[in-house]
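Example 4.3 (complexes with small molecules)
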Amino acid sequence: MRLICPLCGPRDRREFYYSGSEDYLNRPTPDAPAEAWDDMLHLRDNPAGVTRDLWYHETGCGSWLLVTRSTTTHEILATERVADRKGAGA
Amino acid sequence: MPELIAKTALSGQSTTHAGTTLAEVNLGQITSIACFPGQMAAVSAVLGPFPAPNTHADGLCWTGPDQAFLIGRAAPDLTGLAATTDQTGGWAALRLTGPLAVDVLARLVPLDLRHMTEGQAARAPLGHMQMVLMREADSFLILVFRSMARTAWHELEEAMQMLAARKAL
Ligand SMILES: [Zn+2]
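Answer. The structure with zinc ion bound is encoded below.
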């Protein structure tokens, strides 16, 4: 399996650390109800098909990537740097 | 006061197998330059052109997003433009030169280095170690954490010995 780092190019899966669902990017506001925090921390979909998750380019450039891939075909559909997303780092 | 001597990790040792040489080199001062958001152009005005991803030139090597190593000269004052940290004692530098160089690295680095050309650079693993790799005219320059210097040396020399033995058959 290979992931395409937008900075480093196509790289072996060994170079990446898998973090988990993109849900971690969508933090509730501090005053959100407990249910919203519970959702973000613990509730996950388990799709047969397209999923989006976070990978860290650990032995490469050190970027966090948002990867869109298929759990049924193992196809990598898109990769983007979390830092390049609109509003990141603001 | 005794005179203290700065020593490199491997005392400048070198080894040659089948015409391919691995040698520790002293690069002098190394400074990490991490640009503050939106300041890369201002940093370039002071330092010289900031290296594009996966490239190195004129003692500047890309090491990550908006980040580079300044090698072999003192860092200018970049207050307000970039975070600068002295990395001089933190890295060991190894130069690999010769006909087996690409094959040696092919055993340890998950990249196709046959087409890497002078001026290209990469952040990639050497075995399980973090590495900064630079392609020079006739050699590869390999930077690993100083604490990993002997492990890197061992892995590289072992690959050199294996390939040299195979060549001698
Ligand atoms: Zn990368």
